[in-house]
Amino acid sequence: MKTKEDYINLLKSAGVWDPVGDYEKIYNQYNFTEAGQDDPKAVKEFEADIHERCNRIPLEHIVGYAELNSNRYVVGTGVFIPRIQSLGIVDWIKENQAIDPSSLVYDLCSGSGAIGIEIWQMTNANIVCIEKSDLATKYLKRNILRHHAEKVAVYQGDIKEYFDKMLQKPVEAEIVISNPPYVPKEMAQPPEWGVHHPEESVYAEQDGLDIINASALFANRALKKDGVVLIEHDENQGESVSAILASNNFYNIQTIINEKYSDETGLSIFTIGYKL
Ligand SMILES: C[S@@+](CC[C@H](N)C(=O)[O-])C[C@H]1O[C@@H](n2cnc3c(N)ncnc32)[C@H](O)[C@@H]1O
């Protein structure tokens, strides 16, 4: 086995932004001893994990989970990895919006379900997650099961078609959140997102605004008066998202940056609006 510094240097030269943190997360999965007399099979597996990370396979896909607050969410190849940036939305709801166990919250483009489950844990509200991808929906259902989140319901499908396909008219909601794909098609991304995430979880048509538009239309239809929509987006999209919300019957529109959940991989940034 090489030294710790050797592995960290390998990760650093591959362009990994947190080589020490990633090394430790991978290393801590194994029961290696200080004496160095380790099971050769375990060493081989550990080195395979490091090799994958050097090839910019996302850390969470390698270890099989992502952590938000103290919760683990299972993820794997083919599903978007929840980001701490999304906790900006969860904190905003905690501080600004009174919701209770009878409230209805939609989590649009819910992926593995982390944001919806975080909001359910905090409020015990009824959550409806809407996700298009088959694979992401499988992870979403696993995460609901793991967290005993019985009040989190799943609808697998396109948010653009939800209202046409639902037989029953949905009850009016208090909150609609959305972390949609929003990267413009031509914008280069680090390989973790540009190569190793499904394209439809990262990129969107119309300069990245297609699913943001669909989320605003959805929220306009689903929210009760004074209900809130919160949409995550890129740091350059604040004005466009505000304009989209203004043209969909929202008032008191604000773009919010949460420093606590911003890091070297991006700002925690989202735009909110209240339904007229
Ligand atoms: C940026 S990811 C966010 C996932 C999750 N909200 C999170 O933060 O981990 C966007 C998700 O939207 C889903 N998606 C893309 N277009 C969609 C659509 N039209 N309707 C529903 N889901 C969609 C993708 O499959 C992906 O899981």
UniProtKB/TrEMBL annotation:
State the protein's name. Release factor glutamine methyltransferase
Query: In its keyword annotation, does this UniProt entry include Transferase?
Result: yes
Asked if the record carries the keyword Membrane, the reply is no
Query: Which SUPFAM superfamilies does the UniProt record give?
Result: S-adenosyl-L-methionine-dependent methyltransferases (SSF53335)
Recorded hits in CDD domains, A to Z, give: AdoMet_MTases (cd02440)
Q: What is its EC number?
A: 2.1.1.297
Q: Which GO terms describe its molecular function?
A: nucleic acid binding; peptide chain release factor N(5)-glutamine methyltransferase activity
Q: Which UniProt keywords apply?
A: Methyltransferase, Transferase
**Per UniProt, what is one Pfam family of this protein?**
Cons_hypoth95
Quick one: a GO biological-process term for this protein? Answer: methylation
Q: Which organism is it from?
A: Lysinibacillus sphaericus
